[in-house]
């Protein structure tokens, strides 16, 4: 659903706010780096899976720090993934006992 604020912005501003160019550039780079694998299932499916991973927040897994830092969505996705991985450490007190 489109918000009234979105409709008030020019297209280029909306795209800049959402960092669409960052994701398009990354998608094309990923496509070129993995072109042998992609030839098995097609470019359209690659872009579909890439942007689904962006929406799900899994696109940051195994990525360099500069990519994670590039957008607010990437940073939030990293924090959610980090929290999911390590939330039990805090609950369990680290899981390690000091040697006696």
Automatic annotation (TrEMBL):
Keywords noted in UniProt: Cytoplasm, Cytoskeleton, Microtubule, Phosphoprotein
InterPro entries linked to this entry: CSTPP1
Localization per record: Cytoplasm, Cytoskeleton, Microtubule organizing center, Centrosome, Centriolar satellite
A cellular component annotation (GO) from this entry: centriolar satellite
Chief location: cytoplasm
Keyword Cytoplasm: yes
Domain of life of the organism encoding this protein: Eukaryota
Cross-referenced PANTHER family: CENTRIOLAR SATELLITE-ASSOCIATED TUBULIN POLYGLUTAMYLASE COMPLEX REGULATOR 1, UPF0705 PROTEIN C11ORF49
Family: Belongs to the CSTPP1 family.
Quaternary structure and interacting proteins, as annotated: Interacts with PCM1. Interacts with TTLL1, TPGS1, TPGS2 and LRRC49; the interactions link CSTPP1 to the complex TPGC. Binds to alpha-tubulin.
Function: Regulator of the tubulin polyglutamylase complex (TPGC) that controls cytoskeletal organization, nuclear shape, and cilium disassembly by balancing microtubule and actin assembly. Regulates the assembly and stability of the TPGC and thereby modulates polyglutamylation of the microtubule, which antagonizes MAP4 binding.
Protein name, UniProt field: Centriolar satellite-associated tubulin polyglutamylase complex regulator 1
Organism of this sequence: Physeter macrocephalus
